[in-house]
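Action item from last week, closing it out:
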Amino acid sequence: MIVCTQLDPSSNKQHRMKERLSDNEILFTQITKLNAELFSQLRKLFSDYKIQGLKHRGETPYGKKYWRALFNREYASAPEPQDGSVRDLQIAMHTVRELIGFADISIQSRGLVDIPLNYGSVNEFFIVPKHRRKGYGTILYGHVEQLFAEHNVDTVLMTPDPVTGVDFWRTMGYEDTGLNIGSGEPLIYRKHLAPGETAEAIDDAISKLRTPTQIIAINPYNKRQLSEMIPIWRAYCLKNDRRFHKRDVKSTAFEARKHRDVSFAAIYYGGGIVGFVLRKDKEEIRFIPGCDESLRLFLAEEEGNK
């Protein structure tokens, strides 16, 4: 039998309460530095989780030291809202002996999708590897959804990470919004907890953001993005009688990160890279090899709307 219990990290009775709990009882605890042992366990696992997710997406990740420092900054010293409202919650799921999983959620979010409406978001969600495929993900999400309901959240948005996977979130009732389909970036999913006018307004606002094309800065650490860009860069060099070096793609992306007057972005269409935009020395180069007429018209219309 599994029993779920909510612990208050600020309670002086917490330690004595833990002593009375059996090994199979599941606890949910808000993460702070007050929970020193739990905090330490989670910090180690958090860096592994972030690195694994980035590798799935083809990126060369930062090291563990970076992610542990980020964890300290985000979860140990987050400022409390001045109005006393709850906006972000970091919840650990554990027994008296070990950590099982972790969820980071926002009660009032605007960061995932730029729309003039409040929604909840699941920012991070993972289960310790040895505890996966045992139903713990469903238990943790059940607690997360309960927290959203307690704070009157009507709609929740999230991006399925490669570790947890899309199938899990579909099972939890989430549906693809169709956003990011142009860029091939991780898709954004949503679930309406309380269907009504707010949910309809959010769906309407999201529908206006859907587009088959996007222009996204080239990440010099993203191996998958760089490999897609290399044949396009080769075609550009051949057309303009330039000497081709595939390392130029990565070096230009690094240059764009270092200098404000330089930008190097990939043009995505239908989920793949079809060209690039390079701005340097007050000059713009826009190159799309084999561009069909429908794409040209669409890009021209997008440019005219800016």
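Closing note: The radius of gyration is 23 Å.
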